[in-house]
Structure formats: C-alpha cells, structure tokens
C-alpha cells in the first residue's frame, strides 16, 4: 500500500522516533508499505517520520542499475552477500557510529523536500547496528552512497533534516523552494483539522 510522504513544515519531521519493541506482522507490513512508497517516489531511502510515524525505522535500497558496480563498499554481518539478497532493507532501532571520519561532499535530495537538492558534507564510513523486522540483530558497515543514505535516514529518526547540514550557498539558493513547500504543508495541515 502506498503511503503519503510528509512534507517539510509538518511537525512530525522534527520528532525523535521511539524505539521499536514489537516485531510483528504489522511492523513487517509497515516496512513493505514504506518500500513500495519509496519506489513509487523514486527514492533510495525513507524514514518513518516521512510517513507520519515517530518510530526508529527506515528503509533503503541503493542497488545500482543493472550491469553497474555499486559506488560503495559494504559488509553485512561480516560478509559481502550480493545486494539483491539484502535489499530492499528495513532497519529498526539503528545505532550508527563513524568508522572513517574522512569527509565527502555529495548533492543530496529528500522525498520530504520535492525538487530541493544541495551539497552535504558527511563522514565516508559508517557502522550501523540494527534489527530487522523480525527483531534479529545485524551489523552493516558501509562507505559511499550506502553510508551516506544510512546517515541521512538516521538523521530523520532523530528529527534532523538534510537542510540542517546543507552547504550555505545551496541552502540560500533553495530557500524560496523550501518556503513554498512549508506553505503547502501549512495549508495541508489546516485542511486536516
């Protein structure tokens, strides 16, 4: 089932998610719906806050187009299984730490900010301890696009947004568009009352 993606200006995007304690069919269905929504919106990641829920859950899929090599290194529970076996991936209660603090600049976007893009500097390598939708624990280490996606989505779970870290010049250039999205959110919220 496709879900509505929250837009900048809706308070839920600034809420810190609560830990997931129930690993049941409802959680698995929510993760599946989030993946369907992410694909429909042509995204590579989607956090629970972006579908109106303040919980510690995000989904991602950063597989490259057919025939291309991934632009990142990774290990999943100490191995490197084919990406098709582990993605799309749902990560509950992620604990992220930095394993390579060298920084990289990359232009990011966000489904809650349609048509807004800007350069964001992030550490290159991350380690993410998380649980799957059945409650099993895993460790994912990643660089490049996968590492960046983990950091971007983890920020959402903590009420932080990519515009908080965006290059000042890019943010200035995008401000009119961001304000327009926020106005649209206000109108939407009023219509729901």
What would you say about this model in short?
This protein is of the alpha+beta class and 193 residues long. The protein is built from four helices and six strands. A hairpin with a 5-residue loop joins strand 5 and strand 6.
Distance between the termini: 24 Å
Look at the helices and sheets and give the structural class. Answer: alpha+beta
What general form does the structure show?
globular
* CATH architecture annotation name: Alpha-Beta Complex
Strands, total number: 6
Quick check: average pLDDT?
A: 96
Counted by DSSP, the helix tally is 4
Range of helix content: 25-40%
Structure description:
This protein is an alpha+beta fold. It has a single domain (11-191), classed as Peptide deformylase (Peptide Deformylase, Alpha-Beta Complex). It has four helices and six strands; from the N terminus they run H-E-E-E-H-E-E-E-H-H. The chain has a six-stranded antiparallel beta sheet. A hairpin with a 2-residue loop joins strand 4 (89-110) and strand 5. The chain starts with 24 loop residues before the first helix and ends with a helix.
